[in-house]
Amino acid sequence: MYNVLTLNKISPNGTSRLGDNYTVGDAVENPAAVLVRSASMHDMEMPESLLAIARCGAGTNNIPKDVCADKGIVVFNTPGANANAVKELVLVGLLMSSRKVVEGIEWAKTLKGNGDAVGKMAEKGKGQFVGPEILGKTLGVIGLGAIGILVANAAVALGMKVVGYDPFLSVNNALKLDPSIKVYPTIDDVITQSDYVTVHVPLLPDTKDLIDADAIAKMKDGVRILNYSRDGLVNAQSVLDGIKSGKVAKYVTDFSTDEVLGEEGVICMPHLGASTPESEDNCAVMAADQVKEYLENGNIINSVNYPNVTMAKSGAIRYCVLFKGDAVQGITSAVAGLKAIEAKTRGDYGYAIVDADDDSSKAAVEAVEGVIKVRVIK
Questions:
Q1: Residue-by-residue DSSP string for 79-140
Q2: What is the pTM of this model?
Q3: pLDDT per residue over 245-300, tens digit each?
């Protein structure tokens, strides 16, 4: 029996996949796993029982990944599960950045109470909300992962020219891109020729303020910038300065902060990117499946702090070994009756799945230098 703690409301379409061998709830004690969406876990005391945390979404900034790695807690995310939901909202933002839809709607509300004169007043005043079409314009997509690919392809379908940048673009992802999309080796190649720039990268130390004053200075006059990835990727003061100078025509963001709320030329949304029932279902299902696969079979899929390792079971006993450093040789030597082993490292941390004939070697494996946690699955 496994206890699974939920820190946010998790779709039952996901939790129901765990089955009868699981107790799931927001008050369970001694959890083997945690399912979380947006709740911050940085100040949470991690119980000794905790083996896995699954974030129902792509970003994991709310989870102390390094602390978890040191404690032998595998952190999962659900890349691509909410990609379509975010893509659709980016397209909304793309259109709103051009056509002054929000401004027009707000102005139209002020006509209330003018009776039969409203129609003529609307016709007379609509000229202040003129905005360009996106057809034939160039969209620059920074980051060509699951979401960036969908956005890029959708923009092509809408008649835009699309250019992109991603230093980590995989062959599989490249093959998913519309052939008309040009991928460039530098960000500058993209932002200098784009009428619209949309950012789809994780927030890391080297991506913070990715769009800053220097980057904006290289962009076209009247550029429109969209940020549906993470607050911090676009430097707020730089974009506000760009709007005031006329360099930036519009900034659309899914991250409402006091600095940009209510500012002219800025459209803020309350982090609606994945706020669809379909996305919540998809993320919960993927997270639950990954947790179940790890707890029951020891296979790691879509971890962000340990390597992904899977292996078909070939012995009576399976050792799941989380380690730091170069411990594979010691682990192999410590297991009696070894049938098969699959081990990988990711940075300083590694994971080994070891199948054997019996569980007599658990203490010996735990004694290997660098081993953080050993779990036995029968």
A1: TTTTHHHHHHHHHHHHHHHHH-HHHHHHHHHTTTT-GGGHHHHHHHHGGGG-----TT-EEE
A2: 0.84
A3: 999 999 999 999 999 999 999 999 999 998 999 999 999 999 999 999 999 999 99
86: exposed, middle or buried (C-beta count within 10 Å: 0-12, 13-18, 19+)? buried
Query: Is the pLDDT reported for residue 313 higher than 90?
Result: yes
Q: Which of the residues 271, 278, 342, 366 is marked catalytic?
A: 271
Residue 271 a catalytic site member? yes
Q: What class, spelled out in words, does domain 1-81+277-305 have in CATH?
A: alpha beta
CATH fold of 83-268 reads Rossmann fold (3.40.50)
**Is-catalytic flag, 200?**
no
CA distance 277 to 283: 10
Active site residue 259: yes
Spatial CA neighbour of 141 closest among 61, 92, 195, 77: 195
Point out the catalytic residue in the list 37, 55, 224, 230: 230
Superfamily grouping for domain 306-378 = ACT domain (3.30.70.260)
